[in-house]
């Protein structure tokens, strides 16, 4: 028996490859099928099943392409109603895979079809559980996402179901089970996941607040529903793609890998009002870019930020990338449903620059320069675009919090006269924010190079953290 976790850091997503006697099951695959098919071919094995723990919100799954290419059967838990052929399993149904078995445990709560898969070895011993978004390491799946697709599925109703699922289906299982979740730290599918991507169920019973046996249902519901931030706008759209189906990724890649000369690139951008998405490193982008281009670098949580900041999945997208990164960018866009990339700039930004076409740059100052400026002029416009919880954890006294995900709705906070100084944690998000602002006509924005990480090292500025009032403890 072979079990392999295939972890994708930019989405904090874990898929699983399980093999026994030449038969393979894949659990929660990403949209690109090659990693799974290649593994099976190397082992001279056949993919028999594609198990889905639920209809994912944060990525488009690869189940349809995998089934089409390998003949594998797609399996969902009870209540699932996909618009394509799939096995809708019963609670407790067992699937044979070589000498091992996979048992379905219906665990509604994150969604109504949410299910876990219990792995049973050739001796009949339960050895692992694949928990999807029902149970994470240190956390559980948020119960508020399904209501964005089906209004009647309120977060209170799903939180109640989740409590029962954990108590009745998960907690009675053996402590030595290995827990394999669908996500780790950084995913928006939970509130406070661990950086660890696997653990024993016994240890989770000790340290995971949601598995505390003393926690009553009302307490559990209050705990799990407190502090939820709005999910990225693309989540319900990805759910619908996973339910209804989608184009083959091969079709998307073939259509999108169109090399455009600078002249053609400019023409297409103007005629289609396309979004110019520059995926180069933030520091490289700052030195020179196409006016009105938006920078979301591939090296960060690229797909998540695209999904958060670009509301229309069908928006035409033109890419500016480093050489050889074009297909990677297209695949990572498609992972979250952005299938309408219409081409990329042939030769990259250097080709654009050589034509003598207009370019733009980002003004920046060092953390040391910022420190001196802030002490002399604390009344100027300074903005911290980190998430609210990061800001509350620690920030420079006097700097206003303007989380990147709320930028479009709060541009009125920026000064039209004078300069606006912006920082995030390390520079990735501040460059996204500045590129958006410049595209909207704000040329008076300055990046604080190195972000809060660099600012802290200066040791000249007063820092503070939010202190919970005693009445709330």
Description:
- This protein has 473 residues and is of the alpha/beta class.
- The chain has three domains: 237 residues, Metallo-beta-lactamase, Chain A, CATH 3.60.15; 108 residues, Rhodanese-like domain (Oxidized Rhodanese, domain 1); 102 residues, Oxidized Rhodanese, domain 1, CATH 3.40.250.
- 30% of the residues lie in helices and 21% in strands.
- The chain has 16 helices and 24 strands.
- It has a six-stranded mixed beta sheet, covered by helices on one side. Strands 7-8-9-10-11-12 form a six-stranded mixed beta sheet.
- Helix 3 packs across helix 5, helix 7 crosses helix 11 and helix 13 crosses helix 16.
- The protein is globular and about 70 Å long.
Short description:
By secondary structure, the chain is α/β, with parallel strands linked by helices. Helix content is 30%, strand content 21%.
How big is the Rg?
Answer: 24 Å
SS-derived structural category: alpha/beta
Q: Outline the low-pLDDT stretches.
A: 467-473
Lateral arrangement of strands in the main beta sheet:
1-2-3-4-5-6
CATH superfamily of the largest domain: Ribonuclease Z/Hydroxyacylglutathione hydrolase-like
The major sheet is characterized as: 6 strands, mixed
Question: β content, as a range?
Answer: 15-25%
Helix content: 25-40%
Distance between the termini: 48 Å
Q: What is the annotated CATH architecture of the largest domain?
A: 4-Layer Sandwich
Round the mean pLDDT to the nearest integer and report it: 94
Total domain modules: 3
What is the number of helices?
16
Number of strands: 24
